[in-house]
Records
---
Amino acid sequence: MEIKIINNQNTWQKFFEENGSPSFLHSWEWGKFQEKQGSKIIRLGIYDKNNLFAIVLVIKIRSKRGNFLFVPHGPILRIPHFSRLWRDSRGKQNLESFDFVQDKFRIKNYELRIKNILSTLVNYLTEIAKKEKFDFIRIAPVLSNNPENKDLFKNLGFKDSPIYMHAERIWQLPLGLPADKLLEQMRKSTRYSINRAIRENVMIEKRTDQKSIDDFLEIYKQTATREQFIPFSPKFIQNEFESFNQNNNALFLFAIINNKNNNKTKFLSPVSCLSKQALSDSSQCEVERKASSPDLQLGCGVTWRKNFSFIDNTIASALIIFTKSTAFYHQGATTHAKVPGSHLLQWEAIKEAKKRGCQYYNFWGIHQPGRTPKSWDGLTLFKQGFGGDQVNYLTTQDLILSPKYFLTYWYEKYLNWRRGV
């Protein structure tokens, strides 16, 4: 096997999409985002006889926590196209009819290929690390957390990282069912909250205009202060949105409440135009801001005029990132409103994902004892209410190359303590 640098976006994205596009953290856009953040990156392709078998985004990180080479939710491996009992990286077991003798041989060959890919990659990255004075290699795989995959990394000298870099346990909703069936699978209280938000005149606005960044940040800062967590910087949010929005792969959603006590705003209630299928029809509770007008145009022929006080009446917001296969709920912000706008916002995001042809809606990280803060329990309960499955990725892996690694190790142990892990 050999490694080549990939500079062609089409080559990268074609392989990424053909092999599941399981995480936006290995998309071409995420590499562009890292460059905007000031990080140096390398995009690698691992070939066997000129056939591309894996792509690897490598980020060169130099920070207070240490200097290391980082592979976020990767590498992305070529998916085997043969019938088998396949335990895929999404954590499900798909039983298909297969020839035990032939498939056992093919599976063995595939597992051997994964070992060769990882071994080739580690040797390549180790040379770079030693030459450029990085202290360790960190890989956050999108492989299932099972003994076989653990052994793959253990045999190469890796150990579990003291801290997660990106979500290792996620909550994911398959989108194959019709909207009404997805609703049926939700927790009863979640369905009730969606209905209640509609009755309370909550509207969901979808936006990609530049001002949407500032509007999101306003609510995001309030959330961070209230929940006492360190937020991403405004530059981080802006660069993430702009990097993905260039390819129409980013969307802000805002849950806006008709506050009848606000004397400055004249509201027209859209409730009368809701049909019996309001929950499954995106147009009924969705707002689209026209680029040429500051007014909010409603699908029911209703307009909220420009004297509308946006921030005062926004109770939740989210930044959704899209790949070909999946929509990701990556950033969120809420106020402590009595109306459950977040539930309706998520439901509209799920329907948007279906509209775009996504196979999954990824709610991102949920609580994992010993790895994430205990304060995530409430957020986890919220996400699980929409139905779906828990997916466990292999714990982030570290390959130690220098004694300086242990400075990072103990610093990150301290961070875990500070976060309440």
Note: The chain has twelve helices and 20 strands.
---
Amino acid sequence: MNLPIGPTGIEKETHLMHQARDVRKKKRATGFAAAAVLAAALTILCGCGRSSSGADARGGAGVSVSEAKAKTGKLDVYLDAIGTVTPVYTVTVTSRVVGELTEVDYTEGQIVKKGDVLAVIDPRPYAAALAQAKGQLARDQALLKNSRIDLKRYQEAFTEHAIPEQQAATAEATVEENEGIVNLDQGAVDAAQVNFDYTRIASPINGRVGLRLVDPGNIVQANGTTPLATVTQLQPITVIFTVAEDHIAEIVEQMKGGKALTVLALDRSQSKQIAEGTLLTLDNQIDTTTGTVKARATFPNLKSELFPNQFVNTRLLLKTLDNVVLVPTAAVQLNDMERFAYVVQPDGTVQPRDVKVVAAEGETSAVSGVNAGDTLVTDGFDRLQPGSKVSLREAAAPARPTGAQ
């Protein structure tokens, strides 16, 4: 049996139904608001995209790039290589006679001239041997003189038939014998004189003496393995470097014409020029393992800028190109084995143009295919294509080539 529901129960049920309806309304309102916000955001984004596309379509400021103008001038073409400073003469001084080293007459590092005395070997034994040889020579010369007097006397006596012919012939043979002895003695004197002279050791060339290798008081041997000093010529001095075989014909042709090819010596960083000289000669054969030939350049070295066995960077001036179009090397691009450059047009757009590199030297290249005065793009290539609009900014100017106009 169902019991009737009282007024209090009915009111509670009605209140609960109203609360549930209010919750559903609030959820729907929240959903509508979120949808409205999302729609507004999409509208803003689309508007921005359309505005940006419109700006691009109208051209805008364009791609920002650096630019440089092609110029007419001359370009020095160099061949770069690593060279070694090599003296023209280096002498290892040793003693030619045995004896005690009594004097060292040079200072380490001293600049000496040819004939300057470097050291002295005890000369007394050699002076005595020289005196003995001279005494022997004098005695035999006296004997020769006497035998010639006897020969003259015997010849006169033989003419008068006072003596037999055999006696006169014997006197003549005695003279010839004494002449031979005197010649032998003269050779002994000369040899003794040479040995005596060898006791004073002189520099055979002009140059710089190295460190002292033997001290006074030591017994030195004749032609020993330990040198007394080394002397190296510094002025002039040479540098030996290598040249690729591809350039030999051009170098030889210019040398045959009497042209002196300039060679520069630079420091290790190639930022400072040490000395300037001229090419002296090429070697007589190519190294088959490297495909290069050795070259020797000579330098006056008046201020001793170059030091023996020093490594230097060399630059051989191969030729000079006159009245060529010069552009920054950065402006030349490579695409499918073809070189080109972006040329800025009067309307601010760029167009690629094929170029041929005649020669390149550092940051400057001599090219054909563009004209002097053309404006070329030097960076920002990844954003460029034919017809792109560009905005130019001044780039750091490369080193001005010699004779550029």
Note: Confidence is low (pLDDT under 50) at residues 1-16, 23-59.
